[in-house]
Amino acid sequence: MLNFATKPLDKAILLISDKSLDWKPIDEAMTASQLAFHIYEVSFIYMVGTLKGVFNKSDYAMIPFDINSIKSAKEIVDYGNKVKAYIRENLPKLTEEHLTTQVTYNCWGGVKIGGFESLSTILEEIIHHRGQLALYLRMLGIKPPFIYDFT
Q1: Domain 2-139 class, CATH top level
Q2: Is 72 helix (H, G, I), strand (E, B) or coil?
Q3: Domain extents for the chain?
Q4: DSSP 145
Q5: What is the pLDDT along the chain (151 residues), one digit of tens a residue?
Q6: 3-class secondary-structure state, position 27
């Protein structure tokens, strides 16, 4: 399921040219690089939170990445590959207890959601923001990749 959603995402991210990384459609929006990074960052946050029952700011160090140092879209995809590997490694470790326990997100001021909701939000975030990224690409004059990848 993860590959099904992220293969077209990675293709879309790699279409962002180095000169377009800082582009955004309006002042209040994320840049193209921030949006692409955000998709994988929240996937990581939700997986760690679901597994541990809590996500603290110190957990970012598990897969370090400095958004301010991005020089290419490939760097974001490389980060995404690390996040996907972490998810694949830890998904089989989840139990019913993980899915029925409240998860606390201290990185967001102590927000609490159920474990199943936390885990399912990974896919929701990928799909939602993948569509947003497709709009960014179209606004940059780039045809986004086909939204499904069955290979």
Answers
A1: mainly alpha
A2: coil
A3: 2-139
A4: P
A5: 677 789 999 999 999 999 999 999 999 999 999 999 999 999 999 999 999 999 999 999 999 999 899 999 999 999 999 999 999 999 999 999 999 999 999 999 999 999 999 999 999 999 999 999 999 999 999 999 988 877 6
A6: coil
